Amino acid sequence: MHIVDGVLSAPVLVGGVVLTAGGIALGLRSLTLERVPAAGVLSATFFVATLIHVPVGPSSVHLIMNGLAGLLLSWVAFPALFVGLVLQAVFFGYGGLTVLGVNTLVMALPAVVVGLLFRRLAMSPDGRLAALAGFLAGALGIVLAGSMVALVLWLSGAEFIPIAKFVVLAHVPIALIDGLVCAAAVALIHRVKPELLGTLMLSPRPAPTRRLARQPAP
Amino acid sequence: MSHLLGDGAATPTATAPESAGAGSAASAVASLDPRIRILAACAFALVTVALDDLLILVIPLMMAGAALIVARLPLGPTLRRLAMMDGFILVLLLMLPFTVPGEPAVTLFGWPASWAGLEQAAAIALKANAILLMLGSLVGSMDPTTLGHALWRLRVPENLVHLLLFTVRYIAVVDAEYRRHRRAMKVRCFRPGTNLHSLRAIGYLVGMMLVRALERSERILQAMKCRGFNGRLVLLDDLCLGRRDILFGVLFAMGLALLPVLEVLHGRAA
Amino acid sequence: MAALLELDGVEFAYPQRPPVLRGVSMVLHAGERLAIAGANGAGKSTLLQVLVGLHRPQAGRVIAFGAERRVEADFFDVRRRAGLVFQDPDDQLFCPTVLEDVAFGPLNLGQSREQALATVERVLARVGLDGFRDRVTHKLSGGEKRLVSLAGVLAMEPEVLLLDEPTSALDEETTARLVEILTGLPQAMILVSHDAHFRRRVATRSVRLRDGLLGAPDEVRACAAGGG
Fold it and tell me: Which residues of chain B neighbour C49 with C-beta distances below 8 Å?
C-alpha cells in the first residue's frame, strides 16, 4: 500500500515528513553502530518478506508485516521501514518521493504502537498467548495502517472520502492474512529464539563512550 | 531491482548500467556526481507535485522520459515496472471522476463522471509517473552502495546510512535463502493456498528467516569485532563535484524554475 | 528392472551463463543406489533439481515413473515420489519443532493430523531419532538436522531418494549412522557426494559428472581392481 506522488495535499505531505523525521530520530537514538548489523539484516528480511505473495482466491496479496516489525524493532521500525520504502521507490518504482514521509508514517507508526501494546504478551511464557499477541499485532498493524491511509486521504480532500472508505474495507482481509502469518512467525520465534523479541529494545540509549566515538562526522 | 536481489531474471551485470559501462560506454547520467543526481530528482519531484496545469504537466513527463533514455536504462523492464501500479492507486484513479463534483463528461451506469475528476486523475497519473521515472533514471541507475555514500555526504545521519547499506548488502543474501527455503518446501509438495496450513507454513518461514537473520547479524558483528571494530564505521569514497556536475545542476534548476513560469503564462493565455 | 528416473540428452544452462549440463543421459533402476561424483560447480545439484522439475531443461527429456514430464503439474507427482534432501538442512528445516517439520510433507499430501503424527513417529524411529519430536529444529546439532531433514523427506514415503551432499559437515560417527540408515532403506536413490569413502560404502553404481556430461568414474577402475 504505497501512495504515489500527486495525490495528497501539501500540508499532509509536510506533516508526514515532520512526523516521520521525528520517528526516525527516535529510532536512530537507540541504533548504535553496534546494533546496525542486527537492524540491517532484519530490515533486509522484512524487505524480502514483503515480496512474498499469499494467494487469496484467484488473486494474491503480498505480506506487509509492519506489526511484526514493530514487535521486533520498536522505534527502529521507523528508520528500517523508511530505508525499505526508499529502496522500493528508487529501484522498484513503487510509491513516490514527496510521499516518502507519509508512506513511512502510515506503516511505522502503527508498527510502533502495536509493538508497545503487545510485546509483553508476545514474551509471555505461554506459547499460545505469544501467538495471540502475534495475531493481534499483525492484524491491528494493518488495520491501523489502512486507517491512517484513509485519514491522510480524507485530510487531503473531500473527493477522496469514498476511496478512504474503500481502503479501510480492503484492508480487512489483508489484516486477517497478515495477522495469521504473524501469529505463526511469533509462535516460532517464541519457541526458537525468544530474545529476538527484545534485541533492539534493551537500553534505548547508547553507552557514553560509543556516543563519543560516533561524533566525528565530515 | 536486479541490483538488490542478485539473481533475478537476468544477471546483475547485464542490467546494472554502471557496471556495464566503463569509460566511454558509461551513460551521461552515470558520469554525473551522485549527490547532484539525488538533489535534482528531489527538486524535480517538489516542482512537479506543485504544478496543476495538465498541459504543463506533460513537460516533466517528457523530461523524465529524456532522462530515462540518457541514463540508458532498459526501457522495457522500467516501463513495465511503472505499469505495475499498486491496485489501490488504480482504484483511486478510476474512482476520482465519480467523486469529484463538476460538470459531467460521461455517465456510466447512471453515475456521472466529472471533467474536473478526470483532470485530477490525469494530473495524478502524470505527476506520479514523471517523478518515478526521473527518480529511477537519475538515482535508480546508481549502485545502491553509491546511493548510501552520496546520502552520507548530503549529511544524512551516519547510522541511517549504515542501516541502508547493511539492508542493501543483505537483501540478496536473504532473498537467496528465501528461494532455497521455498524450493525445499516445493519438493515436499507445498502449494500455497488460502488456508491455515499455508499461512502457518509461510509464517514459520518468515519467523525462521528472522531468527536466522538475527543469528547471521550476530556472526557479522563477531567477525567485525575480530577485525577490530570499535563502534566506528568509516565510509570511503572519492565523490567530487566537477564542472560538468555544476553545469548540469544549474541547467536543471533553470529548467525546473521555468515550469511554474510557463504554468502562470499558460493560465493567463487561457 | 523398471526404470524409475531417466534423463535423455538433457541440456541446461542458467540464464546468461555457460551450460552446466550438455546432454546428460542417465537411468535409475529400482533398487539401485547411484552415486554421482564431480568437481565443485560441475552441476550435480542442478542435475538433481532438474529431475524434480525445479529447473526445466532447455533440451532433452525428463522421464519419471514411466512418463515424460514437461510442465509444472507433471512434476508435482514427481516430487511426491522422488524426495530431494537438500544440501543444507537449514534450507529445509523451517518449522519450530521437529514434529511440525517432519509433518509438513505428509500434511501437504493430504494426510490428517492423526495420520501425520503416526507417520512422524514411524519415520523418526526409522532414522533413530525417537524422542526428538518436540525438539526445536533450530537448536539441533548439524548431524541431527541432517537426519531430521532426511526424516522430513522419508515421511512422504517416496519411491526414490535424491540426496545432495548428505555427508557435508557430518562427523564420522553421524556419517556411519547415515550409511547404516541409507543402506537399510528399500528406496532406490541418487547420491551426489564428494566423499569417496561414503560413495563406496553406499552406492551400487557410480558415475562422474564432468564438463556437463556423465561418464565413468575414475575410481571405478581402482575399485574393480581391488574387488570392490
Answer: 183
